[in-house]
Amino acid sequence: MEENNATTSSTKGKGLGTAGMVIGIVALVWAIIPLVGAAAWWLALVGLILSLVAFFMAKGGGNTKRGGMLAGIILNAVALALAAFWIYKITSTVMGAAGDLEEAFKNIDTAAIRQSLETAIESATDSTAH
Q1: pLDDT classification of 124: cutoffs 50, 70, 90
Q2: pLDDT tens profile 43-101
Q3: Alpha helices in the chain (DSSP H)
Q4: Which residues have C-beta within 8 Å of that of residue 120, sequence separation ≥ 6?
Q5: Which of 24, 41, 110, 119 is the most core-located residue (most Cβ within 10 A)?
Q6: CA-to-CA distance for 58 and 72, rounded, in angstroms?
Q7: How far is it, in rounded angstroms, from Cα 84 to Cα 70?
Q8: Which of 69, 25, 68, 73 shows the shortest CA–CA distance to 48?
Q9: Beta carbons within 10 angstroms of residue 68's beta carbon
Q10: What CA–CA distance (Å, rounded) separates 34 from 69?
């Protein structure tokens, strides 16, 4: 029996493509959550790699149904971009707060604090001596 190659489609990369798309959906939902979304970068990276590998496997294997693989690539790329945004926002906020704290420590008058401590110790010593 002769097989007609025109009507049959390859399934090469289909499983990896589906896995990449599902991971992309999860990563995107995770990346949308404020602050927590910064941790979605690793999941989006894994999903992006899976989707890309599946896409090139399908392209090389003659699979014309690559929509799920493309969706996985897009979803994971967007999730990765959102995670990078959250990482940037968290880092800039922490660095700004650290700069403010450093400036506050520079403005502390250590001589006045030392004088206050010495006065407090003298008055405590005087009150216990009487």
Answers
A1: confident
A2: 999 999 999 998 888 888 777 777 888 999 999 999 999 999 999 999 888 887 777 77
A3: 14-32, 41-61, 67-106, 110-129
A4: none
A5: 24
A6: 14
A7: 21
A8: 73
A9: 22
A10: 27
42 close to 84: Cβ distance less than 8 angstroms: no
Q: Which two tokens stand for residue 123?
A: 């008055």
In which residue are the tokens 């010593």 written?
125
pTM for this entry: 0.68
CA atoms of 43 and 40, how far apart (whole Å):
5
In the predicted model, is pLDDT for residue 20 greater than 60? yes
Contact 70, 55 (CB under 8 A): yes
Neighbours of 114 (CB within 10 A): 10
